[in-house]
Design brief:
The complex is a heterodimer.
Chain A (H helix, E strand, L loop, with lengths): L8 E6 L5 H11 L9 H6 L9 H15 L5 E8 L10 E12 L2 E11 L5 E10 L1
Antiparallel strand pairs in A: 1-3, 2-5, 3-4, 4-5
Chain B lengths: L9 E8 L2 H10 L10 H6 L11 H5 L8 H5 L7 E10 L8 E14 L4 E11 L5 E12 L2
The chains are: A alpha+beta, B alpha+beta.
């Protein structure tokens, strides 16, 4: 794994447009049955334009990007802020790169900046991962 | 305003068994294509004990108590006004199908911004397996929209 250096890019992951079907499946599978993600009437009554994606769906996509890149056992920390709401039909792309190599308890860890963004470039999730090198 | 007396409030710990079928469903829902996340033979061929839970799965475990959103109940929140502000995970050991995970959680902070227009509730979780091994911790911040 010596090929991981500062500036190394994590192969990006581009997702299909977010659909109601995607949200229904994720609600069931994730156990997050908050109706704001699956019931348009409820979402509108709560002041939102329509149902919108679970933040944790996009974070799961970031997780896929990370484990596509390195085995999951190497992932030590994974965090993000939810910066913007992901709406229906948004095309989310996950990307990231190594910004620092640090030593912790005798291990080398790559600190990676990671993000999910819409096709417009607007960031929806902004975060960080620590991956053992 | 959310009563700050709930800072430090601990929720009742609970245990949940990781079902293989649930992991397969979760993998489908997030479009996962690596079979170690949904096929036991593939997972074993790569040296895993069973199907592997993906990195964000502990969040799903946190929703497996009889009341999926105990914080909503305790703080008398309206679920339609809640947004997810941030989420952190730290990992110590893998979680596999068949594991029995005990989830403990508490409210660690309550604060507001924009003159109370937005309130925040920070929660901390720990996930321990059947061998009393701490496998992961997480924190998340909920955002509550007022008006």
């Amino acid at each position: 794994m010596t090929d991981i250096q500062i500036g190394s890019e994590i192969p990006a992951l581009e997702l299909a447009p977010i659909s109601r079907y995607t949200l229904a499946l994720f609600a069931g599978a994730s156990g997050d049955h908050n109706p704001i993600h699956i019931d348009s009437d409820f979402a509108k009554a709560a002041g939102m334009p329509d149902v919108f994606a679970h933040g944790m769906l996009s974070m799961a996509y970031l997780g896929r990007m990370l484990t596509n890149w390195q085995p999951q056992a190497k992932l030590k920390k994974f965090s993000n802020k939810f910066a913007a709401i992901t709406q229906l039909q948004d095309v989310v792309t996950c990307s990231g790169k190594v910004v620092e190599l640090l030593e912790q308890e005798g291990k080398i860890l790559a600190r990676c900046e990671i993000q999910a963004a819409k096709a417009s470039g607007e960031q929806t999730l902004v975060g960080e991962a620590l991956v053992e090198v | 305003m959310i009563d700050k007396k709930f800072i430090g409030h601990e929720f009742e710990p609970f245990s949940t068994t990781i079902e293989k079928g649930r992991l397969k469903f979760f993998a489908k829902a997030i479009g996962e294509t690596n079979p170690i996340y949904f096929n036991e033979e593939a997972a074993k061929a790569e040296g895993h004990k069973s199907v592997l839970a993906p990195p964000t799965f502990p969040f799903t475990l946190s929703l497996e108590s009889d009341d999926p959103f105990p914080v909503v109940t305790a703080l008398k929140l309206e679920i339609g006004r809640i947004l997810h502000g941030s989420q952190d995970f730290e990992y110590f050991a893998p979680i596999y199908a068949g594991d029995e995970i005990t989830v403990s959680s508490k409210i660690v902070d309550i604060f507001d911004k924009k003159g109370g227009a937005l309130e925040f509730v920070a929660l901390q979780y720990s996930f321990t397996n059947q061998d009393d091994e701490l496998v992961a911790t997480s924190t998340n911040t909920l955002v509550y929209r007022n008006g």
